[in-house]
């Protein structure tokens, strides 16, 4: 029962395709039914995230048959095998796909992409399970876990999360969630944890139970990445929202039960060209602290939609023209401004969540900004800034975020400097920390991808490139086998320790490495056979309060 099983391939175009494939006679079928099914599954699991379900392209290039047939089988087979410096993984030489699968995929993408089915209210209702009704849940917290200092750790390939104690490092629970779990978000009260998998399954976990466990679940599509809950005063824990890659839509659900209330399609016209796009995927979603609104990034059409959740029947949305390929982002330290990356356009977009208006669109000067939620700190000379690192190069860019105190710097890139190398996914600091941490997870060099750069904030200067210390996190983890990558720094509740995932292959040992923020010394290596492929870590307090 894989998510790809939902994809009903359409075989109608097969007879029309003329492509020369080495080793095949002209009248051999290009692909068999069985191969097509397998190709659809591999495409969903490995390729759709970047190239889109309909292969129209986003982070990755378009792969519609007009493009792929012009490139031809040999080119595609080579490209899938060896990858490219622009970010295409080397699926063949890394061993992640066999030679036979590379051959299959090169043939598969010559075909018309199968249009996966829609997923509306009947389908959602069918998958919705209220496991424990609100009236049957605990009336008070039944465990002695310090919930605010709990970490929800994604165990990506196990389809689970681990709840790890921020003080004792004990694993309180391992909970089954969706396929290729992506992120966790926490309700405003801190009681409910929402986890979403790539298969668009959301699992809602009650942290008050004696042993925290799932109380509701639902599937909101066939592919998704984002989930969030209402945070505005008076609406705490009232609604949850999730955004799907397929079908392109967002869904507002009851915050207590996950009952779907309202589905809104994001299909529409691209903001600048004003031409129709059939697959505008929903990327990051944040909850406004200033208004009863959700902030929804719509990737391919380049729009940020402010969704007012006070009246779902007469839904008011404000559609902001931003930039194409919106991906991830976070709030500034005052929580008033939302700063988000239009990654394939090398831009940051700034939204004022108090006025629900565009403030600025700024070029970062780097290639493919990828901030996660970003990092807020006060630069000694530039004042309050928000930082992003980049997937496509080694640079870190700082954008001024204080229009009142430092108007000349506001929404401008005030500084840019080098960290370890390209392939960075996440950057992090904490209001109590003097350190800025930058990973290099996808860097091709094994040592670099297993290390983290740390900058001292109080030593940063306007006219000098800051120096950094390299922490050999992977080495500290003491893992003998595989090529573990270090990913996503996350602080504990007090802001005294920072946690890193050491992300290895599914069948190899992984770990979480905890570093003392003051001394930059190793504090703890958390290892457990159940910690399979840890990626994201979400501290309950920092996540619900947007502390980063
Ligand atoms: Fe993510 C956040 C999409 C690959 C780990 N990822 C996000 C968000 C989006 C997204 C839209 C923002 C959610 C929000 O804030 O509401 N990620 C995608 C992709 O489309 C992409 C590029 C390819 C794919 O097929 O999924 C992708 N992401 C990855 C990974 O390879 C990572 C490292 C491991 C994995 O799980 O697949 C990964 N993504 C994460 C993490 C976050 C995230 C840990 C949350 C960061 C945070 O601090 O909030």
TrEMBL record:
Domain of life: Bacteria
Transmembrane domains' residue ranges: none
Cofactor: heme c; heme
Keywords, in A-Z order: Electron transport, Heme, Iron, Metal-binding, Oxidoreductase, Periplasm, Signal, Transport
Main location: periplasm
Residues of the Cytochrome c domain: 34-113
EC annotation from Swiss-Prot or TrEMBL: 1.7.2.1, 1.7.99.1
UniProt subcellular location: Periplasm
Catalytic activity: A + NH4(+) + H2O = hydroxylamine + AH2 + H(+); nitric oxide + Fe(III)-[cytochrome c] + H2O = Fe(II)-[cytochrome c] + nitrite + 2 H(+)
Single GO MF descriptor: hydroxylamine reductase activity
GO cellular component terms attached to this protein's record: periplasmic space
Subunit-level organization: Homodimer.
Descriptive protein name: Nitrite reductase
Protein's organism: Stappia taiwanensis
